[in-house]
Specification:
Elements: H1 18-21, H2 35-46, H3 51-58, H4 62-72, H5 89-93
Length: 94
């Protein structure tokens, strides 16, 4: 009789989080933030880097990056986007 899939070693079934999608992802859950990590977070946020890319570069979960940015007062919102409800003058004339 075959073993259940969740009992097989190496099976992704039953795993949770980033290790299921990408086994090479190094989790740094509950690791303290170093000053170098914090400066890199500020630099990436200033450059309008998406949080998914930040998580790969900092090797931390997206939720940890968002919470740390909120605690430190770092805005992750892109600064180079215009408001969504703004229309051009040509579109208003029609």
């Amino acid at each position: 009789m075959a073993k259940a899939a969740w009992k097989r070693p190496g099976s992704p079934i039953g795993r949770k989080g980033p290790r299921k999608a990408n086994p090479a992802y190094k989790r740094r859950a509950r690791q303290p933030w170093t000053p170098a990590d914090l400066s890199k977070l500020k630099q990436l946020a200033k450059g309008n880097t998406p949080t998914g890319v930040m998580s790969i570069k900092l090797q931390r979960p997206v939720a940890a990056i968002r919470s740390k940015a909120q605690r430190e007062g770092i805005s992750l919102r892109p600064v180079n986007r215009s408001p969504y409800n703004r229309r051009t003058k040509a579109a208003k004339r029609r």
